[in-house]
Write a structure and sequence with these properties.
two-stranded antiparallel ribbon, about 250 residues
Length: about 250
C-alpha cells in the first residue's frame, strides 16, 4: 500500500508564461496581452496559459504564443527560424500567485529580431509590444496598473537573463536580421542594456572577438551615409573575452 494518499494533496495546474523580447525602434520591447476574462480581467499580462494533459512544456509555450498573438517562435534548435531563441527561464510556484487554485508556471524566454505586430486571439482582447521600461516596477513612463499575477517579476527575471546572456554569449545576434552591420548590433546592446556605447570601442571589441562575427563580403546603405560592412553570426556560442556591461 502506498504511503501517500492522492486525496491528501490539493489539485494544482501547470501553466506556461512567455517573456517575448524584441528590439523595435531601438528600444527593448516585451509582448503583452490584455486579459479578456477573470482573474485580472482587463489587466495587461504576459502571454501564456494552462498546459494540456497530452503536451510537453515547449509545445504548450508555442501553442499559447500562436493562440494569443498569432506569432510563432523557433526553438533552441532553430526548427522554424534559426535567428529566434527559446529557452526555459524559471519556475514560479508561490501558493497564492493565482487566486483560482494552486498553479505552478514554467516561464519561457523568447528572443527574436523585429517581430511583426501581434494579433490577439484566445482569451486575449489585445496584444501589443511595449517598452520594458514602461512595464517593470519603478520604470520610467510606467503605464497604468501593474501586470497581472506575478508577471512583473517574471518579466524582470527575463530581462535580466537577456542582459546577462549577451555579455558572455553571441545571443545578441538573435535580435538582428540574418545579415547586419556592427552599428545595428551595437543598437541591440544599447537597447537591451539601456546604455549608450562608444561606437569605436564597440566595433573594436566585437570584430576582435574570435568567432563572434563573420564578414559576408557585402555592404548596405540602409542606415544612410557611407556603405557599411555586413556581418553574420559566427559559430562561437560563448564570447572570450566577454562583452561586459558598463557600470551604471
Amino acid at each position: 500500500m502506498s504511503p501517500y494518499d492522492p486525496s491528501d494533496f490539493p489539485p494544482f495546474a501547470v501553466t506556461v508564461d512567455l517573456v517575448v523580447l524584441t528590439v523595435r525602434s531601438d528600444a527593448l520591447c516585451a509582448l503583452v496581452v490584455r486579459r479578456g476574462e477573470a482573474p485580472y480581467q482587463g489587466y495587461w499580462a504576459l502571454p501564456g496559459g494552462f498546459v494540456r494533459e497530452d503536451e510537453d512544456l515547449d509545445a504548450a509555450a508555442a501553442r499559447k504564443l500562436a493562440e494569443e498573438t498569432g506569432l510563432s517562435s523557433g526553438d533552441a534548435s532553430g526548427s522554424q527560424d534559426p535567428r529566434a531563441h527559446l529557452e526555459q527561464l524559471a519556475t514560479y510556484g508561490a501558493p497564492e500567485r493565482d487566486p483560482r487554485m494552486r498553479v505552478v508556471s514554467v516561464a519561457h524566454l523568447v528572443l527574436a529580431p523585429n517581430l511583426p505586430t501581434p494579433v490577439p486571439g484566445g482569451h486575449a482582447r489585445e496584444a501589443r509590444w511595449a517598452p520594458v521600461e514602461t512595464l517593470l516596477p519603478g520604470g520610467e513612463g510606467r503605464e497604468g496598473a501593474p501586470l497581472a499575477f506575478d508577471h512583473a517579476r517574471i518579466l524582470e527575471d527575463g530581462v535580466e537573463r537577456a542582459r546577462s546572456k549577451i555579455e558572455y554569449s553571441s545571443l545578441a545576434t538573435a535580435f538582428c536580421p540574418r545579415e547586419f552591420t556592427v552599428g545595428e548590433l551595437r543598437r541591440v546592446y544599447e537597447a537591451v542594456w539601456g546604455v549608450a556605447l562608444d561606437p569605436r570601442n564597440f566595433h573594436r571589441k566585437v570584430t576582435g572577438t574570435p568567432g563572434f562575427l563573420v564578414p559576408t563580403g557585402g555592404t548596405t546603405t540602409r542606415q544612410g551615409g557611407r556603405p557599411a560592412q555586413l556581418f553574420r553570426a559566427g559559430g562561437a556560442a560563448l564570447l572570450n573575452p566577454p562583452m561586459l556591461r558598463p557600470e551604471a
